[in-house]
Every structure is written in structure tokens, then in C-alpha cells.
Amino acid sequence: MTKEEIIRPENKVYSRPRLLTENVTHYCPGCSHGVVHRIIAELLDEMGLEDKAIGIAPVGCAVFAYNYIDIDWIEAAHGRAPALATAASRLNPEALVFTYQGDGDLAAIGTAETIHAANRGENIAIIFINNAIYGMTGGQMAPTTLLGMKTATTPYGRRADLNGYPLPISNLLAQLDGTAYVTRQAVHTPAAVRKAKAAIKKAFRNALDKKGTSVVEIVSTCNSGWKLSPAKSNEWMEENMFKKYPLGDLKDSEKTAY
Fold first, then answer.
1. In angstroms, rounded to a whole number, what is the distance separating the alpha carbons of residues 206 and 201?
2. Residue 92: which domain range?
3. Which of 12, 88, 181, 183 has its CA 20 to 30 A from that of 250?
């Protein structure tokens, strides 16, 4: 087989998504952010939303998302992405507005903004990266940190009597009348990536169709904060994170009346 035959379009297995820039990311090797960025870039291109999408990136590991996905972005103060997304969506009703937030942002400093935007049923999609730690600022305990999990601020492990319990905020959001779709996915295997992509696509479509707020939680790893290799981080996530944060749909208004 000649080189020309090998590189024919029908034989293509992998290529960089058109909207994913060639900038080298600042993410640690093995970080889940890169996979989710690729999914979003693919979907925006496949759905023809390059000129209609507005991403909202607050403070966190993904604060520089505008360097990697070539669409319009707005920077938000820490935790305020849903509030800013509310304004962007209402002022640009034909646009797809989505936030990209970590657990320290969405489930801690941004809890109020998140819950109230979802309760109002704002026509936005929320991509929620849950790696159970503050990855950018030194590996401190986050609201989603598991009991017994060691972090920079819980060096002997998280204790319920001292630090409270892990916060399954997606379960709370699923109870609100304003949410149309709430799901929890992962990106640690090819099969999981396909499911996550389908979930994010559904969230984007819901926002465009004015069905209310959609939330896609991605249970993720932070191998630097967890002090594990990328492979070991995936194993630890499967053995520990999935017990507290099981994968699957928590709410789908198209299937079930809530």
C-alpha cells in the first residue's frame, strides 16, 4: 500500500479538531481537561456553532481555555460564570452559551450563582469538571473531596466532623425545576469519551432549544494534586470517585417528569 493510499480521508483515524488551536496547553500530562476540550471543539465544529458559541471561563485550571478552543470567550470572576452566562444568553438569545467550571469554582465560591441560574432555568449549558481538589492553587480540599482523601489542607485526610461531607452538587441541581438535563460522565476510556460527547451534545442542543439549564459533570482526575501517575489516577478514580459520584443521567426532562 502506498503512502497516498494510506492517507486517504476514509482511512483517517485521528486528526486535530479544526477549532482546537495548536497552542501547547498548560495542563499537566494525563489531565482530563485536554480530552474535554477536544470533545467541545469537535462538537462545536460538527454542530456548526463556531460563530454562535460563547464560552464562559472563570478562575481555575481552565482559565486559559480561550487559548485552546477558537471561539468567543468571556472571562468571569471566580465562581461567577453562571451569572455572566445568564447575561450573555439573555442578550444573545440565538447564541449557544456554556460555562466551563471546576469543582472549586462551581461547588464552592460559585454555589449561589450556580444554583440560582439553574433554578431560573437559564438557557445555558454548564460543563462541570469534578476532580475533587483545587488543582490550580496547590491541591487544597474542595467541596467534592472524598472522606479520608489527603490534600494540602487535609494532610491526614478529610474528616466529616471537621471538614463536612463531600458535596454531590449535581444531585442537588437535578432537583430544581429549572434544570432540563443533569448527567455525570467521565473521559477515562474510549467508551466513556463517547458517552461524554453525547451528553455534552445534548446539553448544547437543550440550550439552543431553550429547554432550560443543562449540567454535564465530568468526574475527572488530577494526577498532580493526587500525587499519582495518570494511569494510577484513573484507577483511583474508578475505585473511589465513582462510588461517591456514580456515572449516569440524574435527570432528563425528555424522559421523566420531575
1. 9
2. 28-252
3. 88
pLDDT at 202 (0 to 100): 98
Q: Which residues of the chain have pLDDT under 50?
A: 257-258
Strands in 179-186's sheet, in edge-to-edge order, are 72-75, 53-57, 96-102, 125-130, 213-219, 179-186, 248-252
For β-strands 96-102 and 125-130, DSSP reports them as parallel
Task: Classify 56 in phi/psi space as left (phi over 0), alpha (psi -120 to 50) or beta.
Answer: beta
| Run of H or E residues at 200 | helix 190-208
pLDDT of residue 1: 73
Q: Is residue 12 part of a domain?
A: no
Distance of alpha carbon 78 from its chain centroid, rounded? 16
pLDDT score recorded for residue 199: 98
Residue 6 lies in a domain: no
In a domain, 21, yes or no: no
In 3D space, the residue among 128, 247, 104 whose CA is nearest the CA of residue 188 turns out to be 247
CB–CB of 135/102 below 8 Å? yes
How far apart are the C-alpha atoms of 118 and 120, rounded to whole Å? 5
- When divided into structural domains, the chain yields a total of 1
Does an H or E element contain 104, and which?
helix 103-104
Q: Residue 193 is part of a domain; what is its CATH number?
A: 3.40.50.970
Q: Are 227 and 138 in contact (CB under 8 A)?
A: no
CA nearest neighbour of 146 among 173, 118, 165, 125: 165
> How far is Cα 228 from Cα 197, in angstroms, rounded to an integer?
26
CA distance linking residue 100 with residue 131, whole number of Å:
14
The answer to whether position 13 is within a domain reads no
Nearest C-alpha neighbor of 192 from the set 131, 248, 136, 127: 248
Is residue 84 exposed (0-12), middle (13-18) or buried (19+ Cβ within 10 Å)? buried
